[in-house]
Amino acid sequence: MPVARIAGAAKTTFQHAGERRQAGSPFSNTPAWITCGGRKAILIRCYIAAVDRGSLGMRGDRGLRIGIPRALMFYRYYPFLKGFLEGYGCSVQPSPPTNLEILGEGTDICVDDVCVAVKVLFGHVSRLAHEVDAILIPRLVSVEKRGYDTFTCPKLIAAPDMIRYSFPHLPAPLEFIVDISSAPWWWGCIRLVRRLNLPLRKMAGAYLSAAREQDKYEGLLRDGLLPADALSKMYNGNGFARPSYLLHRDVTVAVVGHPYLLGDPIVNKRLIYWLDACGARVLGSTLLSEDELDKEEPFLPPLSWSYERELLAAASYFMKRDDVDGLIYLTSFGCGPDSLVTEIVRRELKPVGDQVLMEMVLDEHSAESGVRTRVEAFVDMLRHRKKVRSYAGRAG
Ligand code: SF4
């Protein structure tokens, strides 16, 4: 992923983690630091005490079943989380692909005024509730270090809390906390391991195999596969056929949106399928590497929301490519960050070629027929414009 790359995250320093601890309690339990002596020993004792505080006494056995809801950060970090937990012998169970029942259930349980992506999370948690020993929900606070403060969306920061208070009959969700502005990526792994009461000594092996899985996944995304297809290729065996939306065709449409919107056909109402059926080649924003996105940085206003900055950079990148005929900017109704970024895309970014921008706002009431009609009209228009341009070129 362009932000929060796991390898890069490891460059941050250990002291940040210590700074986050509350003064007092961890230290008072660890008098041994006085006798150990030395600054390094103090830091080590503080660190062990601090992570111990995070353990809630959950027993980490081989075969512990951990459910991961197929929503939000699932489409970014599932291979890493699965690899890491399996490295400890846990069995990882993702919830099934979203269907209308899951969407409906999530909509019923969740408050009205949040985006459809969060409502889907609720539906998936409900589906996993009685099938697993624990449900893991990432808490993404900040996923990169920049010269200014960066955050993810407030709903990604508060997702475990929303689940905890909406499902009071379930044990509190396991959290995988990422807060790169104050602690390295692997700190979240340590907290998770301690919460599960698993041995830290196994962490390096589990971490490395998880990072390899994540690299493999990101490699598939770079090849152009959309998140659901990349996951399917990784985990569903050999029979995976290369999707036809990657074929070179007379019209190319770039789709910019969060991976959980691009990756879930129930949420996006099979947008990618309809584009494919209309004969368009599809480039998803998930295919862009961190380097490609970073090159757009000088042309963009600074944004504190990392994932929205990523989408803005992706839109800017595609608008400069002359093989892209049209761009669809995909957002969720009720998404605060995207409502601002959509305006920036519309007002500040200028296509260098003849590309056309279409915004598509999705919610739980969106109908597949509505998306299909818009997509057909959009692709027809792009094709027509191309034809007109080519006649004009020949005549001129
Ligand atoms: S960024 Fe927008 S779509 Fe994503 S979780 Fe936040 S509000 Fe929902």
Strands, count: 8
Distance N to C terminus: 44 Å
Largest sheet at a glance? Answer: 4 strands, parallel
Distinct bound molecules: iron/sulfur cluster
**What oligomeric state is this?**
single chain
Series of secondary-structure elements, N-terminal to C-terminal: HHHHHEHEHHEHEHHHEHHEHHEHEH
Number of helices: 18
Quote the average pLDDT.
Answer: 82
Share in helix: 40-55%
The order of strands across the largest sheet is 2-1-3-4
Number of domains: 2
Structural class: alpha/beta
Radius of gyration: 23 Å
Task: Please explain how this structure is put together.
The chain has helices at residues 6-9, 15-20, 25-28, 32-36, 39-53, 74-87, 100-109, 116-128, 154-166, 185-195, 203-222, 227-235, 259-262, 271-277, 290-294, 306-319, 336-348, 368-395; strands at residues 65-68, 91-94, 134-142, 174-179, 251-256, 280-284, 326-332, 356-362. The protein has 396 residues and is an alpha/beta fold. The radius of gyration is 23 Å and the shape is globular. The two termini are 44 Å apart. The structure holds iron/sulfur cluster (SF4). Iron/sulfur cluster binds at residues 115, 117-118, 153, 155-156, 258, 332, 335-338.
Helices and strands in order:
Blueprint: H1 6-9, H2 15-20, H3 25-28, H4 32-36, H5 39-53, E1 65-68, H6 74-87, E2 91-94, H7 100-109, H8 116-128, E3 134-142, H9 154-166, E4 174-179, H10 185-195, H11 203-222, H12 227-235, E5 251-256, H13 259-262, H14 271-277, E6 280-284, H15 290-294, H16 306-319, E7 326-332, H17 336-348, E8 356-362, H18 368-395
Parallel strand pairs: 1-2, 1-3, 3-4, 5-6, 5-7, 7-8
Helix pairs in contact: 6-11, 7-8, 11-12, 16-17
